[in-house]
Amino acid sequence: MPPATLLALARRHRVALPADDEAGLRRWFRFRDFDHFVEIYLAISGCLRGAEDFHRLVLDVLAEQGRQNVVWTEAHFTVSTHLAAGGDGEGIRQAIAEAAAEGERRFEARLALIPDIVRNAPRERADWTVEWALGGPRAPAPGGVVALGIAGIEAGFPCEPFREHFDAAAAAGLHRVAHAGEHGGPDSVRVALDVLGAERIDHGVRAVEDPALVAELARRRIPLDVCPSSNLCLGIYPDLEAHPVDRLRRAGVGVNVGSDDPPLFGTTLTDEYLRLAAAFGYGREDIAGLALASIEHSFLPAEKESALLEAAECAAAGAPSGRGTP
To answer: The domain that contains 31 carries what CATH number?
Structure first.
């Protein structure tokens, strides 16, 4: 949620925030630790009340994605937070779909959702999440669901209780992804693969601590969605030079560059590419390779993935091409 949107929604709903201007909000976003991040995330979520709030948020997000030429976004959405607060699940779904369709027309940017289970939340919320995920349109319909995910605190909150939820998602044809190997170590990644059948790992960077796991990820072609600035802000690594993204790439692991929560971490997807280029000496070919990998590892239908890859390859080669909106 961009700071300007947060301020507008907080004023609309008379929610008190620690700051009343964008500069103050950015100071608030300087995280002390993961608990501080969760505190801020929940405060922001509490400013989303009615359908019009979700509509505005989706349009603001897609406007920014369009500005960066990000034509396909698979975004995690913790719908259970809003359902637990009394939100209307179908109203939220409709608002997101309408805004996603409008954003596609106006900004040539498309949105798919990954409703995610929160490990450390009451189990009934996992049930709600799966029910919501399976109850509406699938991507690539605007704002449709593309996968089931899991997030939340890794330590002390294992994946095993949610096996049946991921089995239900798989049986219904949804993809499966999992936050793992961020604050948790390599074992967290292994459990996400073995118990949940994760096809893609969010973060996953601590897999580097287990060479056998790194080899398995490369062999099985399980990609990692790596968000470097997020990892630095939350204290996983002290600086980019210590970050394992380059070591993972060189070991043959598929790596996608992500921005996590861009306004909260003071970044954009474009910034992430530029920071990696500066830290590891990446040139045009390396950055193009990362961008192409993100398409190949997406959950776009095969024909749309092929069209977007062709457009991106033309752009990387400097040839004239359309934007390649899938």
So the answer is: 3.20.20.140
Helix (H, G, I), strand (E, B) or coil at 145: strand
Tell whether the torsion through CA atoms of 96, 124, 167 and 200 is positive or negative: positive
Q: Is 124 helix (H, G, I), strand (E, B) or coil?
A: helix
Domain, as residue range, for 172: 3-315
- Would you call 182 a catalytic residue per the annotation? yes
- Does pTM surpass 0.85? yes
- pLDDT tens digits for the chain (326 residues)? 889 999 999 999 999 999 999 999 988 888 777 888 888 888 999 999 999 999 999 999 999 999 999 999 999 999 999 999 999 999 999 999 999 999 999 999 999 999 999 999 999 999 999 999 999 999 999 999 999 999 999 989 999 999 999 999 999 999 999 999 999 999 999 999 999 999 999 999 999 999 999 999 999 999 999 999 999 999 999 999 999 999 999 999 999 999 998 988 889 999 999 999 999 999 999 999 999 999 999 999 999 999 999 999 998 888 655 555 56
Does any domain span residue 182? Answer: yes
Find the catalytic residue in 74, 104, 182, 199.
182
- Interior/surface letters 245-278, b for 16+ CB within 10 angstroms, e for the rest: bbebbebebbbbbbbbbbbbbebbbebbbebbee
